Amino acid sequence: MHGVREELLTLQAESIGIELLKVHVTEGTNSEYEKQMELTLLKARAEGIRHVIFGDIFLEDLRIYREKNLEKVNMQAVFPLWKLDTAWLINDFLEKGFRTITCCINDEYLDEKWAGREIDTAFVQQLPPAVDPCGENGEFHTFCYDGPLFRKKITFLTGEKVYKTFEEKTVINHKSQSASKGFWFYDLIPVYE
After folding, report:
1. Is 30 helix (H, G, I), strand (E, B) or coil?
2. Which of 11, 29, 49, 117 is the most buried (most CB within 10 A)?
């Protein structure tokens, strides 16, 4: 959903100093995603890993979904940010010196001008009241490129903004309805030094 190039994720993991486990999906279905995740988690479990950490803050259905999937492979989910105040979290994040940029904007909440913006105090102050300051409801997604955990800042160029729609199917009163949901993606292009 972030739309971030795989190379940037590799650079991010290298800078932080952690191994990156990549899970590839080709069909784009939820069942394929779950199967590929299960295979990857089973490999991690075989190496002695028993816990998976998530940054979810308050979406109960997502937490339950993650916990159920981990139960299948006898692993436990850990939610260190669970139920923390998101205004406090974003301010703490900024005070600690982390730097991040929006790479995906849900047009249900924000318009195109929010794509590619640095998250700073002004960004947080200018958010509409209905938008969570951490984007916890999927209002926006980000790419973190610098901060106290990074050995080296991730350098990138900004590319084009691309608008994509996704069909969302719902059933109301036994009638199937489709609605388009749109997202602005801001391309971030890695720079190798």
Report:
1. helix
2. 11
Residue 106 lies in a domain: yes
Q: How far from the centroid of its chain's Cα atoms is residue 176's Cα? A: 29
> Residue 37 falls within a domain, yes or no?
yes
DSSP, res 161 = E
The whole-angstrom separation of Cα 83 and Cα 57 is 5
78 vs 63: CA distance, rounded Å: 10
Question: Per the domain annotation, does 68 fall within a domain?
Answer: no
CA–CA gap between residue 87 and residue 71 (Å, rounded): 32
How many domains does the chain divide into? 1
pLDDT along the chain (193 residues), means of 10: 94 96 90 96 97 97 97 98 98 98 96 97 97 97 98 97 79 55 95 88
Residue 74, both tokens: 């006898």
Distance (Å, whole) CA 97 – CA 58? 24
User: Within the chain, where are the H helices?
Assistant: 6-16, 30-46, 60-71, 86-95, 121-126
Find the domain containing 141 and state its range: 6-49+85-190
Furthest C-alpha separation in the chain: 57
CB-facing half-sphere around the CA of 7: CA atoms within 13 A: 10
Among residues 163, 182, 160, the alpha carbon closest in space to that of 116 is found at 160
List strands edge to edge, sheet with 175-190.
140-146, 99-106, 175-190, 156-172
